[in-house]
């Protein structure tokens, strides 16, 4: 009996995005499978952040097809992405520095009991979630502004997980972190993959990509410029695709290769 391949959680086919007369993304292909970390790579201006905004519903695609578990869906606003199970942690984290950790996690989705805020239940859930992610749980009632950069990144990731998403989009999560804090964030991403989540990781750090990602998708000037198995592709080959130094770098179109 021939087994039927499991469709990816998320697949993009021919996705285009235009701002005014400028087409920022052209015919983008991308797949993210459960239990897989896909690194989204490209030079500044390649379209990485725009693609994240398309997937998260912040800047809906103008053309193309988006599929969720093999069925066509429409992501026109952030609410649509969240309903599907897509969560996003943007580079600026969007945390309120004057609020504590609990307040940041439940901002806009507070738990109430008999018409009053249930602070004990929100704190319990916050502590439980953070203890699953990290060994060093920060002070839950201190202002977020007092936390380290790594702790704030952890809080932002924890907030994104409240709705039990199946895909997490991370925009440069280690860009402002030291070595120890970077290691902790990468460990968290590794945990999420082991739990079966799909992760799209935007990063300029090839060390992080090599250490963590299963696949790499390269954008160049708003177009696909290569799909790579990170474990079998050299650092130089991926960099060449990012910079355009070698237009003969291997390119594999998503629908022509199993898993892409």
From TrEMBL:
Residue intervals of the ABC transporter domain: 10-246
Domain of life of the native organism: Bacteria
A Pfam family of this chain: ABC_tran
Annotated GO MF terms: ATP binding
Presence of the UniProt keyword Flavoprotein in the record: no
Keyword field contains Nucleotide-binding: yes
Swiss-Prot/TrEMBL keywords: ATP-binding, Nucleotide-binding
InterPro entries xrefs: AAA+_ATPase, ABC_carbohydrate_import_ATPase, ABC_transporter-like_ATP-bd, P-loop_NTPase
PANTHER family (alphabetical): CARBOHYDRATE TRANSPORT ATP-BINDING PROTEIN MG119-RELATED (PTHR43790), SUGAR ABC TRANSPORTER ATP-BINDING PROTEIN (PTHR43790:SF8)
Protein name from the UniProt record: ATP-binding cassette domain-containing protein
Organism: Streptomyces lutosisoli
Lineage of the organism: Bacteria, Bacillati, Actinomycetota, Actinomycetes, Kitasatosporales
């Amino acid at each position: 009996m021939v087994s039927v391949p499991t469709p990816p959680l998320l697949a993009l086919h021919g996705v285009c995005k235009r701002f005014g007369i400028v087409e920022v993304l052209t015919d983008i292909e991308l797949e993210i499978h459960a239990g897989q970390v896909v690194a989204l790579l490209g030079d500044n201006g390649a379209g990485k952040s725009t693609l994240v905004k398309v997937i998260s519903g912040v800047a809906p695609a103008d053309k193309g097809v988006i599929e969720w578990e093999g069925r066509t869906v429409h992501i026109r606003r952030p609410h649509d992405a969240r309903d599907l199970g897509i969560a996003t942690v943007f580079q600026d984290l969007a945390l309120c520095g004057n609020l504590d950790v609990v307040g940041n996690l439940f901002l806009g989705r507070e738990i109430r009991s008999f018409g009053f805020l249930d602070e004990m239940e929100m704190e319990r859930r916050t502590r439980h979630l953070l203890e699953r992610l990290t060994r060093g749980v920060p002070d839950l009632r201190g202002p977020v502004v007092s936390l380290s950069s790594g702790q704030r990144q952890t809080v932002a990731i924890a907030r994104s997980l409240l709705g039990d998403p199946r895909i997490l989009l991370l925009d440069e999560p280690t860009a402002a972190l030291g070595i120890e804090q970077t290691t902790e964030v990468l460990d968290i991403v590794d945990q999420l993959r082991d739990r079966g989540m799909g992760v799209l990781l935007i990063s300029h750090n090839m060390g992080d990509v090599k250490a963590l990602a299963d696949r790499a998708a390269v954008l160049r000037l708003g177009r696909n410029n290569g799909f790579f198995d990170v474990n079998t592709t050299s650092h130089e080959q991926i960099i060449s695709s990012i910079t355009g130094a070698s237009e003969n770098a291997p390119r594999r179109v998503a629908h022509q290769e199993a898993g892409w």
